[in-house]
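To the team - pyridoxal-5'-phosphate complex, inputs and output below.
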Amino acid sequence: MIGRALIEDFPILQQKIGDAPLVYLDSAASSQKPRAVIEAISRYYEHDHANVHRGVHTLGSRATEAYEGAREKVRRFIHARRASEIVFTRGTTASLNLIAKTYGEAKLGPGDEIVLTPNEHHANLLPWQRLARQTGARLVFVEPSPEGILDETRLTQAISPRTKIVALAHVSNVLGTIQPIQAAAARVHEVGGVIVIDGAQSVPHMPYDVQALDIDFLAFSGHKMLGPTGIGVLYGKYELLKDMEPYELGGEMIDTVSLHEATWRDPPWRFEAGTPPIAEAVGLAAAIDYLEGLGMNEVEAHVLRLTESATRALGEIPGVTIYGPRAGRHAVLTFNIGSIHAHDTATVFDSMGIAVRAGHHCAQPLMKRLGVNSTVRASFYVYNDMQDVEALVAGVHHVKEFFGDVFG
Ligand code: PLP
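Output:
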């Protein structure tokens, strides 16, 4: 079972906005949470909470078990080799910053190159900009097609012996395009570099196997995959993590401390200074259970089906501009209606109970390439259905009527 029938499990989706039932099409920004996740967090606070890795008391052991159990669950979900390759962070942004600051600053120098695309989310651009400024390395942008499709040959040809890092979103949060990360991984490994994958829009939607993809570092966020805010993951191959310096320093990440020196624990704890997001890890584990209950193959097929139907339907409405490819896009549909500002469209949608994102989607360089300041983005997840696609289509017609004079 997948689609609207799941709304039973999502209390927040059962409400009305004004008189209209809520149609939630903003899961790419943040997904909603099933009762199972909310209850797992409540249960943890009601029965098991204490700090982790410290107390010898019962609650401390339970909390530690729950936290480390969540790590093992994430390991299985992305098929990492060992749980010590899973670092809990605040989210995708924090994970990418951690890699740039620790691995990046240690490994890059003048003349080295970081290969990426101009379509990246700011979270996968700004940390590399700063790293390049600090080390004298150079950013190399591989141009996608006007539709946003990244040609595999073009990408692999941009990777040279100077390339130390390839940093790519697996799935674009604006265009829904799927990047050829496997070919990039194979090529960058030939020249001794690493690949960093921004999995914010891919891990929530597809079966994932970091070993099969041969990814060196992967970043993703719990809140986009039915889990709570405040937790994300940095996956790193153990042989890379074990040679990296910590990012933050403080409690829980040390082996020994004297007044002038300290030594670090092994990964992943080396990268988890201070009290970690324990309840959030419990919630993320419950979210993974829920997604696995649906089956990730089914989740992927479902979001692809809805995105494809919505793209086809909106593509047939005169005056609608769709950004990115018409087919093969993953979970997000980005568009504008005539010359109507995206915020105006989203405001009219909201009056109909339809929640979408409007703006630059944290991808200003891509917006510039598209020649717009902002776009509307509808995104789909497990609890959406064809009914929501129909509501979106009705919404577009309503916006056109509302701003009729724009269309003459
Ligand atoms: N990368 C991509 C592709 C995203 O879509 C997002 C969130 O929208 C992020 C990174 C940042 O994620 P977070 O805000 O959870 O750190």
